[in-house]
Fold this protein.
Amino acid sequence: MKRFILLFSVLFFGMSFTTDPNPPVLKELIKEDMPYLLDFYKHRHRTPEISLQEKQTAKELAAELRKVGFEVTENFGGYGIVGILKNGDGPLILYRTDMDALPMYEKTKLPYASKKEIDYNGTKIGSMHACGHDVHMTTWVGTARAMAKMKDKWHGTLMLIGQPAEEIGAGAKLMLDAGLYQKFGVPDYGIGLHSSPTIKAGKIGTAKGYTMASVESVDIKVFGVGAHGASPHMSIDPVVLASMMVMEFQTIVSRSLKPVNPAVVTVGAIQGGVKHNIIPDEVTLKLTVRTYTEEVRQLVNKRLREIARGTAIAAGLPEDKMPVVIIPENGTPANYNDPDLIDKLNASASKVIGKENIEETEALMLGEDFSRYGQTADKVPTVLFWLGTVTDEKIKAGDLPGLHSPYYFPTPEKTLTTGVGVMSQTLLDLFKEG
């Protein structure tokens, strides 16, 4: 009798305290769908389209959503698509994928590698998904299919965004400016993911607060007085002035900012002159500026202007030859992960992959325009997390081509299984909570 009571107690309490019943159901759905998703992924990989040219990609993504019951709006903010799946009363949750590829030749030698060539600003070049957007789209489609099959387990409205032009930082703004929230509603939450070239497939990476930097492309026109290269005393050499500015810019981070406020000021190009013995009268500097906070961004830009102008004044240039510092108003803002939503994401992910497979990641100076969805006046809580894509063997060997490398590719099946599982479970839990 004691043995029977003990056995009954174990069974009863084991049944009473089992984890969420969704993961086994979800796991089976993903397993059944994986051959379809792998075919879709390989098709996406071999047929990339660059920023603002995602016409066929968007058309095929829209078709995938319609297959499982979404109402789809196409050509929204360029080639953007919006899919809505209504399932009773509940939260409105946005899940975004980007769609664009990069203008570069692929060198992976995969059997499904892209061999596509395009005309890019008058130059013939390849086209490749070197930033994992093929993974993002396939995870998005897999999640859409899973959520449509599990409508008995959630209530609310799922808004799936297919965004163009992430690689040039334009797509999110295009969709928001087209009235995304005005037409389809202000989401209660916004979620996205990005492929990681350093995290093992089967794991994810998350962090709270600022995780990616704001991005600004700055152009500085440096003027001078041209002369013969053999008579430099008759010139005010803009090459020398530009070089002085480049060196002085390096002190912005080290001397103008508090040590706890990170920033990057990189001069990526110096352009000027045409011949060995001619001192030109103009040089252009091209910079990328990365910061996390608005206060730091404004200070960096202020110092760029001050250094450029101060250098020109010291050289004796008149007012009409002062440098022109061009800073676009619509740079990509820094990405901020809502701390409470990260906690919810981690809790959901742990049901699918276990806490041991959730890494706490460092903030990076990369940029991602997903950040815009959480920085409207509506202040939508958003998170963007990292999806592991590489094998353990590659990590141990140190063979880790980075994003935008012609050699980068994920290990598809485990990556997609994790991505669809974590994203679907997170959505299920957020809908139930709402």
